[in-house]
């Protein structure tokens, strides 16, 4: 069956046969205070034109390089995808006078404010800003491509005197074995390609977002020490899958000491529905509670395109985690998943909120290092979201 046409930007690798490329970088840009909307639009346009030129093998600093050099540059940036998104602050008249846009702000495009961004996921020490006027997401085949693209943005801003600043940047990588830091398969139950577009494409509310999507970015530090203190059976109960095969758990048995032990089912992508109270509170069931009718809006489905990160390894152990990156038709979806009890509102990752004797514990696994919510306008010329900056 042909896939329905869509207006989702490049960089959301959801289409049939696509796989997210292994390298990821997010670059957050601030628009200087007092800048007129037309100037901001021209500056962002210039950045995006420069990035497109990279794919043609054109680098400003190496203008007129010999053809072989140009071909090498072209090879290097082949497959680089650039997604442009607008943050809550772009719509904030307290930060931008004159306002950068007069377009209506989507209801759930909000700051991740407060002492705890979410009820069960606290901020980590050393948190960084994750919110900005504009976010550029780079995905590509090599670290060189996504990293160099980020630095070319910084160079252009300086050289051309653009009224922008690079506020922050984050990196991430995918694993060719399909596993994440917990050493479980990750992404095995990501959305089927059919329902993906329905879960992704934003409605025309506000109108300028019709056919676009929303990006949630949560850079979650993962406490690998806490995770590794659980034995394999407890880890599987907390995730809801077999560690080696990725197969969903179908039952829980008790050993002679009354300890809960996982029972994996036959190979299957989607965990079957369950009434077992321990399986119901595992991560995969908390994060997706509408398996019976996956297309229903109440399913709170999102398309996940996460990338692991490693910040450092030292005597105190590694600083690492997951850039949780999801795309969805409405940011309310993410807020529900993160706030509702029985979803991720009452435990930090998975497992029972109040473990009984023999149950697995509910590890305090993730803390938020940075995060931001963004609107990803539909594809358009000269660039997605350019219409935001029109006067009136
Ligand atoms: C903001 C926090 C998170 C949310 C909202 C979230 C959401 C989800 C969702 C929707 C699923 C698919 C469930 C299904 O349909 O079966 C899932 C599965 C999974 N998640 Fe998370 N997750 C979060 C954080 C994490 C973190 C920090 C890790 C690991 C470091 C992680 C590891 C996994 C694993 C291993 C699976 C099972 C594989 C799979 O079914 O895709 N998640 N998560």
Characterization of this structure:
- There is one protein chain.
- The protein is of the alpha+beta class and 392 residues long.
- Helix content is 22%, strand content 22%.
- The protein contains nine helices and eleven strands.
- The protein has helices spanning 37-55, 67-77, 143-160, 193-200, 224-228, 232-239, 277-280, 283-287, 331-339, and strands spanning 23-31, 81-87, 134-140, 164-173, 213-222, 249-254, 260-264, 303-304, 307-314, 317-328, 366-376.
- Strands 1, 2, 3, 4, 5, 8, 9, 10 and 11 form a nine-stranded antiparallel beta sheet that branches. A two-stranded antiparallel sheet has the order 6-7.
- The longest helix has 19 residues, at 37-55.
- It is globular.
- It starts with 22 loop residues before the first strand and ends in a 16-residue tail after the last strand.
- Protoporphyrin IX containing FE binds at residues 180-182, 184-190, 218, 220, 222, 239, 241, 271, 283-284, 287-288, 322, 324, 337, 344, 366.
Q: What are the low-pLDDT stretches, counting only 5+ consecutive residues below 50?
A: none
| Helix content class | 10-25%
Largest sheet properties: 9 strands, antiparallel
Q: Gap between N and C termini, in Å?
A: 42 Å
- How much is the average pLDDT? 94
* Helix and strand sequence: EHHEEHEHEHHEEHHEEEHE
């Amino acid at each position: 069956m042909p896939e329905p046409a869509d207006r989702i930007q490049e960089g959301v690798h959801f289409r049939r046969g696509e796989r997210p490329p292994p390298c990821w970088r997010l670059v957050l840009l601030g628009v200087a205070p007092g800048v007129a909307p037309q100037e901001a639009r021209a500056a962002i346009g210039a950045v995006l034109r420069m990035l497109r030129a990279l794919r043609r093998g054109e680098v400003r600093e190496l203008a007129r390089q010999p053809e072989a050099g140009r071909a090498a540059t072209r090879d290097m940036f082949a497959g680089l995808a650039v997604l442009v998104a607008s943050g809550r602050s772009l719509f904030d008249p307290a930060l931008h006078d004159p306002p950068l846009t007069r377009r209506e702000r989507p209801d759930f495009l909000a700051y991740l404010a407060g002492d705890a961004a979410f009820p069960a996921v606290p901020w980590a020490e050393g948190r960084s800003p994750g919110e900005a006027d504009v976010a550029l997401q780079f995905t590509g085949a090599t670290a060189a491509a996504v990293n160099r693209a980020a630095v070319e943005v910084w160079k252009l801003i300086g050289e051309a005197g653009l009224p922008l600043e690079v506020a922050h940047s984050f990196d991430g990588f995918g694993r060719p074995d399909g596993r994440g830091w917990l050493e479980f398969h990750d992404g095995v139950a990501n959305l089927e390609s059919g329902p993906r577009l329905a879960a992704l494409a934003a409605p025309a509310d506000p109108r300028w977002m019709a056919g676009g999507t929303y990006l949630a970015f949560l850079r979650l530090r993962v406490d690998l020490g806490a995770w590794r203190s659980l034995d394999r059976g407890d880890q599987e109960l907390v995730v809801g899958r077999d560690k080696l095969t990725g197969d969903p758990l179908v039952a829980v048995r008790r050993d002679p000491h009354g300890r809960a032990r996982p029972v994996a089912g036959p190979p299957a992508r989607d965990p079957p529905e369950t009434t077992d109270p321990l399986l119901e509170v595992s991560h995969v069931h908390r994060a997706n509670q509408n398996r019976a009718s996956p297309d229903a809006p109440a399913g709170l489905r999102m398309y996940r395109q996460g990338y692991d990160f490693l910040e450092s390894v030292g005597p105190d152990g590694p600083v690492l985690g997951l850039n949780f990156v999801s795309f969805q038709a409405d940011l309310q979806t993410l807020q529900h998943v993160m706030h509702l009890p029985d979803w991720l509102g009452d435990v930090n990752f998975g497992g029972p909120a109040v473990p009984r004797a023999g149950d697995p514990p509910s590890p305090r696994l993730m803390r938020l290092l940075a995060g931001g919510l963004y609107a990803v306008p539909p594809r358009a010329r000269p660039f997605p979201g350019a219409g935001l900056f029109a006067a009136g």
